[in-house]
Amino acid sequence: MRRFCQVDVFADVAYLGNPVAVVLDGEGLSTEQMQRFAAWTNLSETTFVAPPTTAAADYALRIFTPSTELPFAGHPTLGTCHAWLSAMGIDKDRVVQECAAGTIPIRRSGDVLAFAAPPLVRSGPVDDPLLTQIATALRIERADIVDAQWVDNGPGWVAVLLADADAVLALRPGNAGPLYIGAVGPYPPGSPTAFEVRAFFPKDGHTAEDPVTGSLHASLAEWLLRTGRTEVPYVGGQGSALGRQGRVYLSADDDGTIWVGGRTVTCVSGTVSL
Questions:
Q1: What pLDDT, on the 0 to 100 scale, is given for residue 154?
Q2: Taking the CA of residue 39 as centre, how many other CA atoms within 13 Å lie in the half-sphere pointing to its CB?
Q3: How many CB atoms lie within 10 A of CB 268?
Q4: Which of 24, 203, 205, 242 has the highest Cβ tally under 10 A?
């Protein structure tokens, strides 16, 4: 039996964020075993913790969707760190995670955990044919897209900026095929939440929606800051269209490092047979 828990991430109240399944004793499991269990949990991600292979890291992590392995993902990073700290009984304000995307620093401030955004693996403008394809998938007009950018830090995100948060909340997308689309729109100045974000991704031949997506908020922050559309710190909202209340806290160091934070709550704990 292996230690196991499910953690809700990016929510102040349990069951209003994005859950991740965490197997704390993942050492010795094959890739096939991990993938099979991730498919069974049917959550957006399931993670497996193992001893690190580098002295710089506290633990190693593998991250699986129900159908594939990811080099990095945001809410699994924070949820796993929460589970690891709780299971180990360790009181640390700085943790380093090793994953396929490299070593990811994580820091704790009060009850908020935050990861340092990994570098983008693809950035730059989006060509017109793809923009037309995205608009069709989102069931909006091409002119409704204020701007667009590749913001891929692992999962494959392409982002579109809409006029406002209401436009984002009104989206009723069709099938986007293999695209990972992030939509973002601003709230009025002075609002508690600066932006509303929605994330659409392929699943079982259809387009699904993720409740709260740390990796997308990380790469969106880089784009929005670089283009002068926001300042840090700010709060990003996500999940409203799904009945969730995700809150993502964005900040940056003087050296430009972007930090993506959220609160985490253990909802299920026990053991699992794998």
A1: 82
A2: 9
A3: 12
A4: 24
Cut 0.85: pTM above it: yes
SS3 21: strand
45 is catalytic: yes
Q: Which residues, in sequence order, are bridge partners of residue 184?
A: 161, 197
Region for 10 from its dihedrals, namely left if φ exceeds 0, alpha if ψ lies in -120 to 50, beta otherwise:
left
Q: Which of 45, 98, 196, 222 is catalytic?
A: 45
Sign of the dihedral defined by the CA atoms of residues 202, 207, 208, 212, in that order: positive
| pLDDT in the model for residue 48 | 98
pLDDT at 139: 98
Cis peptide before 155 (omega within 30 of 0): no
Strands in the chain per DSSP E:
2-9, 18-23, 46-50, 59-64, 69-70, 94-99, 102-109, 112-116, 122-124, 147-152, 157-161, 180-186, 195-203, 206-210, 234-238, 246-252, 258-272
pLDDT digits (tens, 9 = 90+) for 67-92: 999 999 999 999 999 999 999 998 89
- Write down the pLDDT at residue 12: 86
